[in-house]
Amino acid sequence: MKLSKITFSDSARGDILSLYGKSVDKEGFIVEKGDISQKVLTPQGEEIRLEEWAGIRKGSEAFIKKDIFSLIELAKKLD
User: Fold this and answer.
1) How many domains are there within the chain?
2) Is 55 exposed, middle or buried (0-12, 13-18, 19+ CB in 10 A)?
């Protein structure tokens, strides 16, 4: 499977999340824009903070953390 890479500046993160109907709560967690009490979860069921966010997997709303374990797991699924 071919992997595409799109990069954007940290200042654009809010705009990208907004396109997906998400925002960031006062604690820094990514949440649903229409219901800020509903936190976005990673495929592993973890809440994710903006500072931890690496991206969204193509064809889904699977939010991926930027830690090495999450990125390895993503690479295994894409292989």
Assistant:
1) 1
2) middle
